[in-house]
Amino acid sequence: MTMASTPQPAADPRTDEVDEPVAFFEEATGNEDPPAPIRGIGRLLGWIIPANLGIFLIWGAVPGILLPAQITAQFGEADKVANLAVVMTIGAFFSMLAQPIAGQISDRTRSRFGRRAPWIFLGSLAGGLALVGLAFANSLVGVVIAWTLVQITYNFAQGPLSAVMPDRVPLKRRGTFAALSGIGLMVGALGGQIIGSVFLGSIAAGYVTFAALSLVILTLFIVFNPDHSSTELEPEPFRFADFLRTFWVSPVKHPDFFWAFTGRLLLYTGYFAVTGYQFFLLTDYFGIAEPGSVIPVLGLISLAGILIATVASGPISDRVGRRKPFVFASSAVTGLAFLLPWAWPDVTAWMIMTFIAGLGFGMFQAVDTALMSEVLPSAKSFAKDLGVVNIAATLPQTLAPGVAGAIVLSFGYAGLFPVGIVLSVLGAFAVWPIKAVK
């Protein structure tokens, strides 16, 4: 049953352009082509890299570099691990809530600017203000509040942004789109570390710079890739019980969605439990007195591995029509890479690991996003479902330093590596029960 307007002539839905709007369909799911008008795909493909860059520069710079440095400088060396764990754990809890809430609101937004664009802009604007607040926080409570607001607001931008692919990208282009998204994500995360290390001497200036950069980039994305008007869509009723159920991915009702979510959660947790703790590993495990001189080199090494794997994996996955072998291989490679610094506790081993793990994680990021888009339950709730999916991506990145802190306090820094290995390999095996995707 259609919900938008009277039928209009349209091109084949698997082509890249249409001349007239087509209607939204109630029964479309994530493994079908998007029911929204498919236009400007080439331009969208070009802009998704900077759009993801605008958000993930922050996720790379703040929790991995600037926030640990700020906490160490303000509250001392003795309690830095515990203090960081407290800040990250509280922020991660609210991050877990923010994306599904943002998704629910975005899916129900009715405006001539569409369902996604208003929240991408407002989230980036409010997030920038929260970053400025974090820059001037001078107590642990203030840091916790500011970082929590950063998490909530930027997730209100990231959740709707992630819904762009199932909203507007045809199936045959999703591997390429996911690869480009992965490039923006990882270049942002690693570039954030590199740029963040430049601001170690002026942390407040770093926060303000990233806030302004994100707002400008995401605003330009909205301007050059206007969302489809949602004014003619019938409003979806909100039921609080249904919202609470979004935090439970039923393995019975949606087994493919459950296994895809679980695989991503495991790999991301394993990966960021190790790499997300890089700042303290460099200073306390490898004995690097000036980590700011090493972090840019490590970022470039990791970026090289990620770009090689990402650029190759997405298009190849589209060509052969398979996702699962790529996701399995990437998880296994990432986990096995952590053996190196565990067996050989030297910064050289960390550099080699960084490149190999970059290859594995780049392959995963390129293909897993496309796989996720093909197991979503319903087109009516893309943003909400992807908000739940993104818990599996953003929660490990923000929670990992807190989890890693507990591991370090209990078992020392070497305890991080077996945890990363086990979780990554389990993530590889989690994709095999998926039936809807090869």
Provide a quick synopsis of the model:
The chain has 438 residues and is mainly alpha-helical.
Structure description:
The chain is mainly α and about 450 residues long. It has a single domain, classed as Growth Hormone, Chain: A (Up-down Bundle). The protein contains 16 helices and no strands. It has helices spanning about 40-75, 80-110, 115-135, 140-160, 165-170, 175-200, 205-225, 240-245, 255-275, 280-285, 295-320, 325-335, 340-345, 345-375, 380-410, 415-430. Helix 4 (about 140-160) packs antiparallel against helix 15 and helix 12 (about 325-335) packs antiparallel against helix 14 (about 345-375). The longest helix has about 35 residues, at about 40-75. It is globular, with a radius of gyration of 21 Å. It starts with about 40 loop residues before the first helix and ends in an 8-residue tail after the last helix. Residues about 1-30 have low confidence and may be disordered.
Q: DSSP strand (E) fraction?
A: under 5%
Q: Helical percent range?
A: over 70%
Structural class: mainly alpha
Distance between the termini: 30 Å
CATH architecture: Up-down Bundle
Task: Show unreliable segments.
Answer: 1-30
In CATH, what is the homologous superfamily? MFS general substrate transporter like domains
The number of domains is 1
Oligomeric state as shown: single chain
